[in-house]
């Protein structure tokens, strides 16, 4: 397998801050984008990847929280449980940075799966966290945006280093 790691866009790349576009046609190019994203996610040892992270401003995500790869096109959170929890997260586009992020414990997400079918999935734990993290990417949101004031202060040096 060729090394695709250098395809991963790192903060402060502009594409990471844009709202990704809806996919309108579910053709073979979407299929190959999903395959490429899945390969890169595994090579990078990540639990998820969003298309903007490889420079494609499209609403496509892949995740694998240890139960096999799952892709979703045009994913949308349709329900959020009130109960929240804080868990430390990392991001392939923010090397060396980990941040406590508070998110709903369970969500329902709707989108088009790899068979081209509209599905609704109700998930919790790692699944819910991965979906929320990746869907954030489609809206130009990164974990640093979830950081508390104190965390942001501590991050300044690390972010500066990524910018240089
Ligand atoms: Co990320």
Mean pLDDT comes to 95
Write the H/E string, N to C: HEEEEEEEHH
Structural class, judged by helices and strands?
alpha+beta
Ligand set: cobalt (II) ion
How does this model look, in words?
The protein is an alpha+beta fold. The chain contains 3 helices and 7 strands. It has a 5-stranded antiparallel β-sheet. A two-stranded antiparallel ribbon has the order 4-5. The site of cobalt (II) ion has 5 residues, from helix 2.
Helices and strands in order:
Layout: H1 28-43, E1 48-50, E2 60-63, E3 70-80, E4 84-90, E5 98-104, E6 106-112, E7 118-124, H2 125-138, H3 149-163
Antiparallel strand pairs: 1-2, 2-3, 3-6, 4-5, 6-7
Bound molecules: cobalt (II) ion.
Please sum up the structure shown.
This protein is an alpha+beta fold and 164 residues long. 27% of the residues lie in helices and 28% in strands. Strands 1-2-3-6-7 form a five-stranded antiparallel sheet. A two-stranded antiparallel sheet has the order 4-5.
